[in-house]
Amino acid sequence: MPRTRRNHTLGQWGKMTGTVTPEVTRGIPHLELARAKLVEIEGEVDRLVQERSFHQARKQETTRQLQEALEEGRKVANLLRVGLRQHFGSTNEELVAFGIKPFRGRKRSRTTTSPADSTVKAGDEDPEPSGAAST
Fold first, then answer.
1. Mean pLDDT for each 10-residue chunk of the chain (135 residues)?
2. What's the number of CA atoms in the CB half-sphere (13 Å) around residue 36?
């Protein structure tokens, strides 16, 4: 069964509670109870929608405040890291205690030779220009 949109449902309820008045249900007690209950539920739904909107707005405001606090905290933490590096020196191993990697120098790049240059086989040598074998 497909879902009915909330606004459509609320529109139908509003039309029904507007047209089915207490005068219409005066002689039919079980319909009067159902009408009164529908009016009560309609009011509760309206209140809950407003409450949800309020909480959603508060959530957005809280998220914005959280982002601002995180940004400010990152700036202060970075300032503290830089200050510790300046105080102890960038290569001091004591920085590890504060969660900061000390500078340990650059890795040396390895000089690599191409595989064709490093593998010279015995049979691949240039022959003598005269065609004679060397002794």
1. 84 90 87 91 95 97 96 96 94 92 86 62 59 58
2. 10
Which residues are CB-neighbours of 15 under 8 A, at least 6 positions away?
none
Question: Read out DSSP for the chain?
Answer: -PPPPHHHHHHHHHHHHHHS-TTTTTT-HHHHHHHHHHHHHHHHHHHHHHHHHHHHHHHHHHHHHHHHHHHHHHHHHHHHHHHHHHHH-TT-GGGGGGT-PPP--PPPPPP---HHHH---GGGSPPPTTSPPP-
How far apart CA 39 and CA 14 sit, in angstroms, is 9
Task: Indicate the residue type of 112.
Answer: T
User: pTM of the entire structure?
Assistant: 0.55
Task: Compute the mean pLDDT over every residue in the chain, rounded to the nearest whole number.
Answer: 86
Buried b / exposed e over 82-109, threshold 16 CB at 10 Å, is eebbeebeeeeeebeeeebeeeeeeeee
CA distances from residue 70 to 14, 46, 67, 99 in whole angstroms, order as listed: 46, 36, 5, 19
Torsions phi, psi for 107 (to 5 deg): -75, 140
